């Protein structure tokens, strides 16, 4: 999932954009919990993992290497690329805060004003040269560089809930969704057996189908999926989920023209003008699920319009841009902490494992090339 992988410790792999140290509670959580997660399509969607404490593995538990190995088993090995969301495009821009977010979070990024950000648009799956398709889950990773030097990293996708509630469930579904030779589709019997054991996934798929994908990246809403806890200057803590909602008007779907048509359209649009999304924080109430990403919150929950994410430039992935950023969801500024969702520690650990592997591998040019799209 993964739209990115993260860093933040003294042993980070070289090449990652180093975050300023998270607050002590976040550091403690990230050192004490190891896990894994990733992102794939609706047949193999974003995020999954496991957690284990204190560095002691439970017998038979999942490990980050096992999870990364499963992605390689399903998609093949592609040196130098992320194990999931392998196909992508780097971007740069700004976040302009309205100041309204300070009501629920003391993080400096929510003070009125603008901060720089790095971004990455992607498609789910482990194939770096896969053909663009309208139904493939799209990802957007963002790194906000706060005015106090602290970073906030988030990896989002364009579906409103996640199909799995536990890391093990995602791990099992990833194998069930492996395309069969000849058909390119999962084994119907294996997938049916998985769904028969997981009514929560069936319910989540119904929610996902009620929100069909938009025509392209520019008019996609991207959801953070997992819940977090935000604390304001007065010490009040609330549960929060977020999404970035496009300012771009919805457009009719274009006929596919080439294997990279979704990315090419994004590149050409950004060459003409910036693209913007509203960062919307949804405030949870007591009883709203924070540890299960398959369950949506009620539509009537209060929201806070925290500001505008503006992407000003697209960049072919290369050293120094978002290609080398790990969008670890546990790289959080003061005022934000993880919820009880087990997928968060999982995502953090598997992103790190994927980052380490690709950092040590030879690099191949990205299939998405800005200069080629603009010819």
Automatic annotation (TrEMBL):
Enzyme class: oxidoreductase
One GO biological process term: hydrogen peroxide catabolic process
PANTHER family per UniProt: CATALASE
Phylogenetic classification of the source organism: Bacteria, Bacillati, Actinomycetota, Actinomycetes, Mycobacteriales
Naturally occurring in which organism (per UniProt): Mycobacterium parascrofulaceum ATCC BAA-614
Pfam families: Catalase
Family: Belongs to the catalase family.
Keyword match Oxidoreductase: yes
UniProt keyword annotations, A-Z: Heme, Iron, Metal-binding, Oxidoreductase, Peroxidase
GO MF annotation: an example: metal ion binding
Recorded GO CC terms: cytoplasm
UniProt keyword Oxidoreductase, yes or no: yes
InterPro entries, per the entry: Catalase (IPR018028), Catalase_core (IPR011614), Catalase_sf (IPR020835), Catalase_SrpA-type_pred (IPR024168)
Function field: Has an organic peroxide-dependent peroxidase activity.
Active-site residue list: 85
Listed name of the protein: Catalase-related peroxidase
């Amino acid at each position: 999932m993964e739209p990115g992988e993260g860093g933040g410790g003294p042993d980070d792999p070289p090449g990652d954009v180093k975050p300023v140290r998270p607050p002590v509670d976040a550091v403690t959580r990230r050192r004490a919990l190891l896990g894994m997660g990733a992102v794939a399509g609706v047949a193999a969607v974003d995020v999954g993992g496991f957690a284990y404490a204190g560095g002691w593995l439970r017998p038979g538990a999942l490990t980050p290497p096992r999870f990364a190995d499963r992605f390689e088993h399903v998609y093949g090995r592609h040196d130098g690329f992320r194990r999931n969301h392998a196909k992508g495009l780097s971007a740069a821009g700004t976040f302009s805060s309205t100041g309204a977010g300070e009501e629920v979070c003391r993080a400096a990024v929510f003070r009125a004003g603008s901060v720089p950000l790095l971004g990455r648009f992607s498609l789910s799956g482990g194939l770096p040269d896969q053909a663009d398709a309208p139904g493939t889950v799209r990802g957007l990773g963002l790194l906000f560089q706060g005015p106090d030097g602290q970073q906030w990293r988030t990896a989002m996708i364009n579906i409103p809930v996640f199909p799995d509630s536990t890391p093990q469930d995602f791990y099992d579904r990833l194998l069930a969704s492996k395309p069969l030779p000849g058909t390119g589709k999962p084994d119907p019997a294996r997938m049916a057996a998985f769904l028969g054991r997981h009514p929560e996934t069936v319910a989540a798929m119904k929610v996902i189908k009620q929100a069909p994908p938009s025509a392209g990246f520019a008019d996609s809403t991207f959801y953070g999926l997992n819940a977090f806890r935000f604390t304001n200057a007065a010490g009040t803590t609330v549960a929060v989920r977020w999404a970035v909602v496009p300012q771009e008007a919805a457009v009719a779907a274009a006929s596919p023209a080439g294997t990279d048509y979704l990315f090419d359209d994004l590149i050409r649009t950004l060459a003409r003008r910036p693209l913007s999304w509203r960062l919307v924080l949804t405030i949870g109430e007591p009883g709203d699920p924070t540890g299960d990403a398959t369950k949506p919150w009620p539509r009537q929950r209060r929201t806070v319009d925290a500001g505008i994410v503006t992407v000003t430039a697209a960049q072919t992935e290369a050293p120094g841009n978002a290609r080398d950023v790990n969008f670890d969801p546990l790289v959080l500024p003061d005022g934000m902490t993880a919820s009880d969702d087990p997928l968060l520690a999982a995502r953090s650990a598997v992103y790190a494992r994927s980052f380490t592997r690709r950092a040590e591998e030879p690099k191949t040019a990205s299939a998405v090339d800005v200069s080629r799209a603009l010819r």
